Amino acid sequence: MGYTLAILGCGVMGQAVLSAIYKAPKAETEAVASLYPSKIITCNHDNPSAQQVTDLIATFEKSPNGIEVESTFDQNVRAVQEATVIILGTKPYLAEPVLDGVRDVIDGKLIISLAAGWTIDQLQNYTRKVSRVMTNTPAKYGYGCAVVSHSSEVSAEERKVVDQLIGHVGKCIELPEKNMDAATALVGSGPAFVLLMLESLMESGIKMGIPLKESRECAIKVLEGTAKMVEESGEHPTVLKHQVCTPGGTTIAGLCVMEDRGVKSGIIRGVEEASIVAAKLGKKK
Ligand SMILES: NC(=O)c1ccc[n+]([C@@H]2O[C@H](COP(=O)([O-])OP(=O)(O)OC[C@H]3O[C@@H](n4cnc5c(N)ncnc54)[C@H](OP(=O)(O)O)[C@@H]3O)[C@@H](O)[C@H]2O)c1
């Protein structure tokens, strides 16, 4: 039988990860199947948010890997006692009281922390086995991106468990922890920055007379198609950008105005500023 996974704090991100793990396609080999939990216990603070998780589970069909889910509130200690792997999904400012509450039963277990700003070093006050993850809200739809760093005490087999569990929220990329503040800005906050771009493209269509619905569809497809083109061609964005620029044409004219307005440096500086704030989050504790 598989192990038990506890999700301490099952809100937006916790539910995204829960859905992705629960719905993961059936493992093709015994070795892969053993990386999945047989049971997930979700932990929330009060009944209304536990009920939200119960309502979410009720929308699920049977799990392809036979995973059972129990939604609880005020049961953190019991859940951690029963679990081998713990996903920490509380807001960063609540991580300390929540972890203090399970201090006596968490030592020696693997924590997969989603909490922004919480360093491996800080989490190792509770257990030596720590995988720090920064993911984002598209994870809810299986299109997330996750950057992962492990403490040296996380074994090769446990790294496989983390990859398998987190890999279902989207692309999983391992980086050294020194890159985590940058990843928090690029990956965690990234969707908000891309949404600003999407909103701007959409409103440009509206300004020039294209109806809202069609402007929205065009903006979405331009962003989606361009990202796919970069991914599948393997080309540098500059090369692809120049392919769209006819000499003396419309695209280069638009790009020149955007350069005048500092769009590119605005984005770079904005992401950098977000990473500075992310670094401060960790120092507050
Ligand atoms: N949302 C994002 O875009 C995003 C992106 C990247 C990373 N993250 C990281 O993901 C983590 C979770 O963020 P979120 O947006 O998912 O937060 P959230 O929606 O507020 O979820 C946090 C959950 O923790 C629960 N909780 C609070 N106190 C608890 C306690 N004492 N015991 C057990 N559960 C408790 C809350 O339940 P109650 O409602 O009952 O209090 C809530 O369900 C954060 O650390 C954040 O840094 C989020």
TrEMBL record:
<dbReference type="InterPro" id="IPR000304">
    <property type="entry name" value="Pyrroline-COOH_reductase"/>
</dbReference>
<dbReference type="GO" id="GO:0042802">
    <property type="term" value="F:identical protein binding"/>
</dbReference>
<protein>
    <recommendedName>
        <fullName>Pyrroline-5-carboxylate reductase</fullName>
        <ecNumber>1.5.1.2</ecNumber>
    </recommendedName>
</protein>
<dbReference type="InterPro" id="IPR053790">
    <property type="entry name" value="P5CR-like_CS"/>
</dbReference>
<keyword id="KW-0521">NADP</keyword>
<dbReference type="GO" id="GO:0005829">
    <property type="term" value="C:cytosol"/>
</dbReference>
<dbReference type="GO" id="GO:0055129">
    <property type="term" value="P:L-proline biosynthetic process"/>
</dbReference>
<keyword id="KW-0641">Proline biosynthesis</keyword>
<dbReference type="Pfam" id="PF03807">
    <property type="entry name" value="F420_oxidored"/>
</dbReference>
<feature type="binding site">
    <location>
        <position position="76"/>
    </location>
    <ligand>
        <name>NADPH</name>
    </ligand>
</feature>
<feature type="binding site">
    <location>
        <position position="34"/>
    </location>
    <ligand>
        <name>NADP(+)</name>
    </ligand>
</feature>
<dbReference type="Pfam" id="PF14748">
    <property type="entry name" value="P5CR_dimer"/>
</dbReference>
<comment type="pathway">
    <text>Amino-acid biosynthesis; L-proline biosynthesis; L-proline from L-glutamate 5-semialdehyde: step 1/1.</text>
</comment>
<feature type="domain" description="Pyrroline-5-carboxylate reductase catalytic N-terminal">
    <location>
        <begin position="5"/>
        <end position="117"/>
    </location>
</feature>
<keyword id="KW-0560">Oxidoreductase</keyword>
<feature type="binding site">
    <location>
        <begin position="8"/>
        <end position="13"/>
    </location>
    <ligand>
        <name>NADP(+)</name>
    </ligand>
</feature>
<dbReference type="InterPro" id="IPR029036">
    <property type="entry name" value="P5CR_dimer"/>
</dbReference>
<dbReference type="GO" id="GO:0004735">
    <property type="term" value="F:pyrroline-5-carboxylate reductase activity"/>
</dbReference>
<dbReference type="InterPro" id="IPR028939">
    <property type="entry name" value="P5C_Rdtase_cat_N"/>
</dbReference>
<keyword id="KW-0028">Amino-acid biosynthesis</keyword>
<comment type="similarity">
    <text>Belongs to the pyrroline-5-carboxylate reductase family.</text>
</comment>
<feature type="domain" description="Pyrroline-5-carboxylate reductase dimerisation">
    <location>
        <begin position="177"/>
        <end position="278"/>
    </location>
</feature>
<dbReference type="InterPro" id="IPR036291">
    <property type="entry name" value="NAD(P)-bd_dom_sf"/>
</dbReference>
<dbReference type="InterPro" id="IPR008927">
    <property type="entry name" value="6-PGluconate_DH-like_C_sf"/>
</dbReference>
